[in-house]
Amino acid sequence: MRQFNITVNGVAYSVAVEEVGAASAPVAAPVAAPAPVAAPAPAAAPAPAAPAAPAPVAGGQKVNAPMPGTILEVRVTEGAAVKKGDILLILEAMKMENEIMSPCDGTIKQVVAAKGASVNSGDPLIVIG
């Protein structure tokens, strides 16, 4: 028999566990009563990180998030030429992948959204000049 102390939801229990092998016969283990033990103090939560300052948005045609979601993939880089209808990025919203397309021809002036970022409806994603 091996003895273990286990704490569940702040209540400590003393438990006896028998190792079962080919040579040993099963033996009924006694039911352990909860042992009064002081609960450990909860760990202090880490201070939340300050949100990053939003990047300044350059002048030009802004492509905004049509709905809240998470950026799965950014398919363009600053300085890249795009045509109307080109896929700029993939936005996951409600377990669906949505292709955000270029509304016009132009050059990418600024990529505001980054892969993995959470965005709200109306947040700027890309600026096309």
In words, what does this structure look like?
- The protein has strands at residues 2-8, 11-17, 34-35, 61-64, 69-74, 81-82, 87-93, 96-101, 106-111, 118-119, 124-128.
- With 129 residues, it is mainly β.
- It has 2 domains: 2-35, no CATH class; 61-128, RNA polymerase II/Efflux pump adaptor protein, barrel-sandwich hybrid domain (OB fold (Dihydrolipoamide Acetyltransferase, E2P)).
- The strands form 3 sheets. The protein has a 4-stranded antiparallel beta sheet with strand order 4-11-9-6, with no helix packed on it.
- The chain is rod-shaped and about 75 Å long.
- The chain starts with a strand and ends with a strand.
- 12% of the residues are buried.
Could you provide a short overview of the structure?
The chain is an all-beta fold. It has strands at about 1-10, 10-15, 35, 60-65, 70-75, 80, 85-95, 95-100, 105-110, 120, 125-129. The strands form 3 sheets. It has a 4-stranded antiparallel beta sheet, with no helix packed on it. Strands 8-7-5-10 form a 4-stranded antiparallel beta sheet, with no helix packed on it.
SSE topology:
Elements: E1 2-8, E2 11-17, E3 34-35, E4 61-64, E5 69-74, E6 81-82, E7 87-93, E8 96-101, E9 106-111, E10 118-119, E11 124-128
Antiparallel strand pairs: 1-2, 2-3, 4-11, 5-7, 5-10, 6-9, 7-8, 9-11
The number of E-state strands comes to 11
β-strand percent reads 35-45%
CATH architecture classification of the largest domain: Beta Barrel
Q: What about the largest sheet?
A: 4 strands, antiparallel
Q: What is the domain total for the residues?
A: 2
CATH class of the largest domain: Mainly Beta
| Order of strands, widest sheet | 4-11-9-6
The CATH H-level superfamily of the largest domain is RNA polymerase II/Efflux pump adaptor protein, barrel-sandwich hybrid domain
Coarse shape: rod-shaped
Q: Point out poorly predicted stretches.
A: 49-53
SSE ordering: EEEEEEEEEEE
Q: What is the CATH topology classification name of the largest domain?
A: OB fold (Dihydrolipoamide Acetyltransferase, E2P)
Q: How many whole angstroms does the radius of gyration measure? A: 29 Å
